[in-house]
Design brief:
- It is a single chain.
- The protein has 15 helices and 15 strands.
- With 401 residues, the chain is α/β, with parallel strands linked by helices.
- It has two domains: 8-183 and 389-398, Rossmann fold, CATH 3.40.50.1260; 193-349, Rossmann fold.
- The strands form three sheets. It has a six-stranded parallel β-sheet with strand order 3-4-2-1-5-6. Strands 9-8-7-13-14-15 form a six-stranded parallel β-sheet, with helices on both faces.
- Helix 3 (98-105) links the parallel strand 3 and strand 4.
């Protein structure tokens, strides 16, 4: 057991009906092509062990979220997973409906099936306390079909959705090998000493602000550097115009005051972009933060920002970065992220790049030197080392075997 959390070693798995909650949510480019399939490849370790135990294996994962461009079915996951395993992986076009339950009941020992994108089920998009997650139709319909629940979705363990927190209270449960490894490695990061700098890019504003505010308030981070949409928002909070990028924020009256308060509260500890790459009439140009045209959209950070971040990272003993600096899905707007990753590799003493986009960027650059690490887990890793709640891990600890 790791900190009182059961692992595969603590359960009888041979011939059991197993529901594996994996995380094969991979980054897609603007054409819907997989940019980095590492999560699918990583999932194979636990899957093979379960199949070697002749488990009757059913796998559930999510891909994207409602309304996002990457909110798509799990057909390509089944195909890619089949290639990695060297076997056919049947994909069920359902989750908890009768046809899906019938298909689950037909799985034989040593076989596996993959469910449809779990977030196609409306309940899976709710953040619920365990007592309510247990009573969702999703959990109530699926739990009786299994002997064992395995959570290998560390990447989503900062969420409190039914497939993550409901099952451990109803059936014997444990952490898969990815979850087990990540718990060990993040514990090492949490206990590291020295000056820490967090770099937060991309979207998921609420998550990034939770991490930033908590890490700065508890001194888990001495400084935070922000890019992507997080950086754009902080520039707005500092009083700058961001042109058409203002339209990217749906709840601006709610989140802008929080951003402004953060700048005041942590004065001198939050660093935002000093220049941007903007798109206007399908042409790009580099502009300083104080002169973004009203009819332009911010698509990347500029070279001045990369240099600013480079200088700040020189002062850190540990740099932990999550999220791209711009619209990384489009090859035209990747330079800022790639240049940032190169700078981080060059100047940081110890570096952790986490999340799908930065993992993909690091692999585009090449082999990382010693002391520089990649984790496909992004938000969950940042939540854990910032000391924020991890509902799915707590569920395994409280329910477990």
């Amino acid at each position: 057991m790791i900190t009182a959390i059961p692992t595969l070693d603590d359960l009888e798995l041979h011939g059991k009906r197993v529901f594996l909650r994996a995380d094969m949510n991979v980054p897609l480019d603007e054409d819907g092509r997989v940019m980095d399939a590492t999560k699918i490849k990583e999932a194979v370790v636990t899957i093979k062990e379960l199949l070697d135990n002749n488990a009757k294996l059913v796998i559930g994962t999510h891909q994207g979220k409602p309304g996002s461009r990457d909110f798509v079915p799990t057909d390509f996951h089944a195909e890619l997973l089949g290639r990695e395993l060297g076997m056919h992986v049947e994909k069920i076009d359902g989750i908890a409906c009768k046809c899906a339950r019938d298909a689950i009941n037909k799985v034989k020992s040593g076989e596996l099936v993959l469910l449809e994108n779990l977030r196609f089920n409306a309940e899976e998009n709710l953040e619920l306390p365990p007592e309510k997650a247990i009573n969702t139709s999703l959990v109530r319909r699926l739990a009786p079909l299994f002997d064992v629940y395995i959570n290998d979705a560390f990447h989503a363990s900062h969420r409190s959705q039914p497939s993550l927190v409901g099952f451990p209270y109803l059936i014997p449960s444990a952490a898969g090998r990815i979850m087990e490894r990540m718990l060990i490695e993040t514990e090492g990061l949490e206990n590291s000493s020295g000056r820490r700098i967090y770099v937060l890019g991309g979207g998921k504003i609420a998550d990034k602000f939770n991490v930033m505010i908590h890490a700065l308030a508890t001194n888990r981070a001495q400084e935070v550097l922000v890019g992507g949409l997080v950086g754009v928002l902080m520039c707005m909070a500092a009083g700058y115009s961001v042109g058409k990028s203002r339209e990217a924020f749906k709840d601006l009256p709610l989140i802008l005051p929080v951003a402004s308060d953060s700048l005041r509260r942590f004065r001198g500890r939050i660093f935002y972009p000093v220049d941007f790459v903007v798109l206007r009439d399908d042409k790009t140009e580099i502009v300083p933060v104080y002169s973004v045209p009203d009819d332009a959209k911010i698509v990347d950070v500029g070279p001045g920002t990369v240099e600013l971040f480079r200088e700040r990272m020189k002062e850190a003993d540990l740099v932990i970065a999550n999220g791209p600096m711009g619209v990384f899905e489009n090859p035209r707007f990747r330079k800022g992220t790639l240049d940032f990753v190169k700078a981080a590799i060059q100047v940081s003493k110890e570096l952790v790049l986490c999340g799908g986009h930065l993992s993909a960027a690091a692999r585009m650059i090449g082999t990382l030197p010693e002391g520089k690490r990649i984790f496909t887990a992004g938000g969950a890793l940042m939540f854990k080392i910032a000391g924020l709640p991890m509902p799915a891990i707590n569920a395994l600890r409280e329910g477990g075997s």
